[in-house]
Amino acid sequence: MTEFRSAVPLPHIPDDLSIPQFIFRSEYPGRPTRPRNTPLFIEDGSGIVTTYEQAHYRAYGLANALSIKWNIGPCSGYFAFTISHTHTGTKDYATVIWAVQILGGIVTPANPNYNAEELQHQLSVSGAKFIVVHSGCLSAAKKASDTCGLSDNFLLLIDKIVVPGNLPSIPALEDAISFGWSKGENYGAVRFKPGEARKTIAFLSFSSGTTGKPKAVAISHYSVIANVIQMAAHYRLGDPDRSNRTMVPGDVVLGVLPFFHIYGLVVVMHYVLYAGASILVVPKFNFADFLESLISHQVTHLYIVPPMCVLLAKHPAVKGRKFHHVKFCMSGAAPLGGDLMAQMAILFPNASIGQGYGLTETSTTVSSLKAGVRMGTVGSAGELIPGIVARVVKPDGSLATEGERGELVVTGPSMAMGYFKNPAATAETFVDGWVRTGDEVVIKNLEVFILDRIKEIMKVRGFQVAPAEIEAHLLLHPSVSDVCVVGVPDEYSGELPLAFVVPTLEVLSLIKRGDTTENDVKQAIAKHVSDAKIHYKWLMGGVEFIDAVPKNPSGKILRRILRDKANTMKRSDFRQTMPIKLAKL
User: Fold this and answer.
1) Is residue 58 part of a domain?
2) For position 126, which CATH number holds?
3) Which residues of the chain have a pLDDT value below 70?
4) Rg of the chain taking only CA atoms, in angstroms
5) 543 exposed, middle or buried (CB, 10 Å; 0-12, 13-18, 19+)?
6) Which residue of 149, 451, 483, 577 lies most exposed, with the fewest beta carbons within 10 A?
């Protein structure tokens, strides 16, 4: 066998619906029926719920306002928004997404922790013409939008506050929704002809791909809808016997993963709502509050990442608490070890526990915990879901059979369209309808086992980090002559960036004369990154001096050599020697 695919049949996937039509169209064949009293969203802390009717009201009201006041529509350009995870109304993430997509606009979700430079890159690449932003992110958004030439008239606040005098007065989302409903219907909701949903962009979600700076992955309406239906088939949501379904209406799903990340965006937001369950929206992760919320809201399903699993397994605050109501726990975005899985099984005695795997480029899930099993296979990233076809390509280009290792290459209905306006990067990853994942795997019994990362990208707390981006910034530092950044394994974060630096002759002379110390130089180099980059790109793995960066005859960095070196080094706790800004991460 050289191609691997699930034996579970894949239901029909409509290619003439927008994502909002699909979500609000409750009569789709095989979709669980949501009782009227089952909320879509529950705000953690306040307990305020958003019903189907309220979500519909807010999305369509905002769509009317966006059409009247800002002329948002299929030909008006693209749309970006960033929302602070400290805001208790993050249920409106969905409101904004659906309102824009109702009009045929495109959404490019942004990380709320991005600084102005990082946000500017996203705005420039996506061509965004309008920003919805939380007040906590307004300063960075304003700087980025000014640099990109966007007017203040094209900013909308997700929350309603008094803006400081040094910032412009900006309308608030709540006022826009009220305005939209106070006016006659001005817009025509987008209607696709058969096949159009396959080629119409819904999201520009950013990913580093296999190399380089983050790129905009063009994800169609059809891709998201397809992945939701694929997961629904995998987990038997249409089974007449409720006891066979993994999720049923009335279940409460933890919404702690960021909605700007493809995992939270597709799996948590769209799949969970399609399944008829409620999302408990947790605006900011605080572990003590997180534990209280699990119990007070009787959460049944957890979609989390390995750092959260480490805390659940080891934090003393967990001791004595009972979580018998949890019936499903899925970890994704990075590998989860067998010991952690065993501890999670003790903590959640009634839950199915396992892992899933997916990419922004596959929008989203490729494999997931088998339906109906108590514990996933240790080391497995789950079973291929219906509709996914997988190949394992060996270094010589031949196809591996079951149990042989090679690069995972996949295709299926949910594959993204490519990298937006980047044909060169698209050609590297999207080949004749197949997506090269850059991950070395073995497939056995349709389960995917991730062995190594062929691509250079690191995974830090579930976020992609391109070594080349950090290296380019480090080369600007006067003490750095050459550099190679690799990821080192970390139980909590998955990987941590470590920089192997070739110091300049000048700085070596200063150290030799005693005018500075090696540790001071390393701290200055680390601070150079922490001052300019988002926190998960900081050099928490350390800075090591080397004589030369190993390269092949053509000048390409032999990264694997230094990665192997990093994995065998006996290191002291780097956090204790880093500047206070790093130590507090």
Assistant:
1) yes
2) 3.40.50.980
3) 1, 26, 75-90, 161-168, 208-212, 333-334, 552-556, 570-585
4) 24
5) buried
6) 149
